[in-house]
């Protein structure tokens, strides 16, 4: 996949400094209802909103506090930026493309997954389903640990507390957006007591933050899945579920699959009966098991937000 540049987008800079509008191209089809539903359920209070088909979030970029508004249109994603210097646009475009999984080849993925009858059915129901990615390694790492053995709603409540305690107030707050997500150095030195989570999970937050600070490329894209999983599972508090979920959501590992995920097991049994075994069925979905997992989660509808 070529490295995204301004050639992957149409840009219009506005008269107000720092304001730009981008139109990001992607391969059709794209099942936007699934992506927007996924983001809506996982908005961190103060950091993100997803209302009426527009995703908005705060970000720190080049020392600036910024806000983005992303709205899917016909075969392109319109992104309005506020507070972003022009020099930061190429890197931000690359991040946006990764976050929304815009560089996926949906026709190829669907064709290969559809060799399995179940996946063929799910692909017809949600053509162009994508696997949304984390905004950055720090944020996704914290989301993953906060989501261990808890509902999505519960995890977002904890994430909101984390932001209020350790985040930075937005210099120019707007409706629904008040903070930047905590910076990695702040989290590496933070105390997480009295946040309403088990002590072991609080310790894991600090462990993972320090691991990312010591090794910024820990969750980099493009590394071998088995090696990534081994490295993550060496960290205290990170087991196979968390390792696979981080690989799937942050490292862009298309074949990652958290086999112990209760929502995936529930979805598969709903579709194929109580006899269905996720580990056995997943063999037919390689090398696109992350997309198969997203199809299974999506098949649960709003009930799927109970987990993942």
Automatic annotation (TrEMBL):
Gene3D superfamilies associated with the record: DNA-3-methyladenine glycosylase AlkA, N-terminal domain, Helix-hairpin-Helix base-excision DNA repair enzymes (C-terminal), Hypothetical protein, domain 2
Alphabetically ordered keywords of this record: DNA damage, DNA repair
One GO cellular component term: cytoplasm
UniProt EC number: 3.2.2.21
The protein's enzyme class: hydrolase
Protein name stated in the entry: DNA-3-methyladenine glycosylase II
Top-rank lineage group of the source organism: Bacteria
Molecular function via GO: alkylated DNA binding; DNA-3-methyladenine glycosylase activity; DNA-7-methylguanine glycosylase activity
Biological process according to GO: base-excision repair, AP site formation; DNA alkylation repair
Pfam families attached to this UniProt entry: AlkA_N (PF06029)
CDD domains xrefs: ENDO3c
Catalytic activity: Hydrolysis of alkylated DNA, releasing 3-methyladenine, 3-methylguanine, 7-methylguanine and 7-methyladenine
Biological source species: Pseudomonas putida
């Amino acid at each position: 996949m070529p490295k995204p540049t301004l050639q992957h987008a149409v840009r219009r800079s506005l008269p107000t400094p720092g304001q730009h509008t981008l139109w990001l191209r992607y391969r059709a089809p794209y099942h936007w209802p699934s992506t927007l539903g996924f983001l809506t359920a996982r908005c961190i209070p103060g950091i993100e909103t997803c209302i009426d088909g527009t995703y908005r979030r705060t970000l720190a970029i080049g020392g600036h506090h910024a806000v983005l508004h992303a709205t899917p249109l016909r075969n392109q994603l319109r992104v309005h930026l506020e507070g972003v210097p022009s020099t930061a646009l190429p890197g931000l475009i690359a991040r946006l493309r990764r976050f929304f999984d815009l560089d996926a080849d949906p026709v190829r993925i669907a064709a290969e997954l559809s060799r399995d009858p179940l996946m063929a059915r799910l692909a017809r129901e949600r053509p162009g389903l994508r696997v949304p990615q984390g905004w950055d390694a720090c944020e996704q790492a914290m989301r993953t640990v906060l989501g261990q053995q808890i509902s999505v709603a519960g995890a977002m409540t904890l994430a909101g507390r984390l932001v209020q305690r350790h985040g930075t107030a937005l210099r120019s707050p707007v409706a629904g957006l008040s903070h930047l997500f905590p910076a990695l150095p702040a989290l590496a030195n933070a105390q997480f007591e009295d946040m309403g989570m088990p002590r072991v999970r609080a310790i894991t937050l600090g462990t993972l933050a320090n691991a990312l600070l010591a090794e910024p490329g820990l969750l980099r894209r493009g590394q071998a899945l088995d090696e990534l999983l081994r490295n993550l599972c060496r960290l205290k508090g990170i087991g196979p579920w968390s390792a696979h979920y981080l690989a799937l959501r942050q490292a862009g590992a298309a074949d990652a699959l958290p086999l112990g995920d209760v929502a995936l097991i529930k979805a598969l049994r709903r579709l194929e009966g109580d006899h269905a075994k996720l580990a056995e069925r997943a063999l037919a979905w390689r090398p696109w098991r992350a997309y198969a997992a997203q199809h299974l989660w999506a098949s649960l509808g709003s009930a799927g937000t109970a987990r993942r």
